[in-house]
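no rush on this but wanted to send it before i forget. theres a chain ive been looking at and ive put its sequence and its fold in token form underneath. i want to understand how the tokens follow from the sequence so walk me through it. thanks a lot i owe you, the record is right below:
>
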Amino acid sequence: PDEFIVLLPSLASPEDCAVVAGKILNTLTAPISISGHDLHTSASIGIAVYPKDGGDVETLLKNSDTAMYHAKEEGRGSYRFFAAESNAAAAERLMLGNSLHRATERNEMSMHYQPLVSIADGQVIATEALLRWNHPKLGFVSPVKFIPIAEDSGQILPLGEWVFREVCKQIANWRGQGFLLPRVAINISPRQFRQKHLAQTFAGIIKETAVDPTWISLEITESSMMGNPTTAISTLEEFKEMGIELSLDDFGTGYSSLSNLKRFPIDKLKIDRSFIRDLAKDSDDAAMVTAIIAMAHRLGIQVVAEGVETDAQLAFLRAYGCDEYQGYYFSKPMPAAELVGHLIAYKSTPPISSV
């Protein structure tokens, strides 16, 4: 047969089909050597997505076949979705993936910072570093779009190392100016966290930039650690030995068990913004948040609430003993220079002291 069917269950998004299709096409373009002769092959791929493009096997097959013939009409060696909007999304994903390769070289990437505030006294006690991409044609591209692409393609590894180095350089710069934020938090992606010798790589950058590890906090998601908890704990302990603070990010959206949570050597839990959004009017969210705060405190772990935007949210968190918060209620993420001016204006800069 010259036609084959590939089933892709449990995809995160329909556009992920394009990643698989691209890999199939790349594999088939490689020459096949037979009896000293190189044979070249190509393929055309049609994609239909359940349930949008069909609710049964027969309809899905018919629509994927239609999409395949559209791909053939465009010159072979390509893929097409049955739905036009899916084709547009896949094309955008491909374009962004290609653009990501040289984004740092072209100075399109930058770091913004959002303060973490003590609920007890209103002082800024840390700031979270957030990656921003200003594309030359598209303008600012949401991290929700480009981070998954970087993660899937493996580009998150050099990009994550670039982020860590840039933040360390910024910390050193702030310290040189006498602006002494206690800590800066850096997000670690799941693929980056699974990278071998990550702690040694970070230790080298810390030494290179002359930054004290205690000025750094790493934020790791639940899902990053659950694939292999034993290995994850070992990596976390390496960071702890260096003096780096550890936060478990987006808590409540993953699938970690309480037994594993007890084993992880973490300092903070960050309650996901989805639980904070309707905190003042949703009894289930309120019960979840109060339970997380109580549980974490029993384990000796501090709690940070993400996405705080209203007086009512902050009042609830204060009443139930939450330690810190971040969100638009205090400040949006901003460039480093703007952050300094903002904190001075709010008189929230930590006291200047010698290091």
Residues 348-355 have pLDDT under 50 and may be disordered. The longest helix spans residues 156-176.
